[in-house]
Amino acid sequence: MKLFNAGILTLVASATLAAQQPAGPVTDPVTSVLRTRTMGLQRSLAQAFDSIPESKFSYKPTPVQLTIGYVAQHLASDNYFFCNNFGAMKATIADEDRQTPDSVKATWPKAKLVAKLKESFTFCEQAFAQLTDATIAQEYDAPGPNGTTRKAIRAGSVVGHALDMADHYSQIANYMRLNGLIPPTALPRPGRGGNH
């Protein structure tokens, strides 16, 4: 809960700063900041998985941790879980994805895992386009236990999605470093020297 609250405060502070920038009026500043952060995380994750050799997709630092392949399929599933709550648009998920156990999907070839991950990013980008500062504050019926529903606020799914991607990017960045690979956000930026 503390992490969720810290995430909300960070995003609100970012939105406030963005709204104070002299670049002109920003429509839906809170949603705009969340969209920018989310799309940045999607790009970093896509670049990370693209740059990891297929031979490393079965890698996990310890026996109890997830493999890189497992994280890829898990992220795709999480993206649909969160982004389906952004508005009326709902993802069409293939039977193969819904019916295949996660442990089996984790062993799919890199090309298939990365393609499915990128498809989920595309859906989330389209789902995000439905959001405004007004709609992000709306309630929706979220699935509950035993076929029940509960009321939830869309902002919870939006922030939860961003935090989930940040968590898994950190995880994959560490896996990459353990394999001598440089995570995308640590690569030198044009016009800047050095790594993070």
Describe this protein's structure.
The chain is mainly α and 196 residues long. It has one domain (2-186): Up-down Bundle (Four Helix Bundle (Hemerythrin (Met), subunit A)). It is 57% helix and 5% strand. It has helices spanning 2-20, 29-51, 68-83, 95-99, 102-105, 110-128, 154-178; strands at residues 139-143, 149-153. It has a two-stranded antiparallel sheet. A hairpin with a 5-residue loop joins strand 1 (139-143) and strand 2 (149-153). The longest helix is centred in the C-terminal third of the chain and has 25 residues, at 154-178. 27% of the residues are buried. The model is unreliable at 8-13 and 15-19 (pLDDT under 50).
Write down the overall geometry.
globular
Which value, in Å, is the CA radius of gyration?
A: 18 Å
User: Could you state the CATH homologous superfamily?
Assistant: dinb family like domain
Q: Topology as H/E string?
A: HHHHHHEEH
Give the biggest sheet: 2 strands, antiparallel
Uncertain segments of ≥5 residues (pLDDT<50)?
Answer: 8-13, 15-19
- What structural class do the secondary elements suggest? mainly alpha
Please summarize what this structure is.
By secondary structure, the chain is mainly alpha-helical. The chain has helices spanning 2-20, 29-51, 68-83, 95-99, 102-105, 110-128, 154-178, and strands at 139-143, 149-153.
Q: In terms of topology, how is this protein built?
A:
Elements: H1 2-20, H2 29-51, H3 68-83, H4 95-99, H5 102-105, H6 110-128, E1 139-143, E2 149-153, H7 154-178
Antiparallel strand pairs: 1-2
Helix pairs in contact: 1-2, 2-6, 2-7, 3-6, 3-7
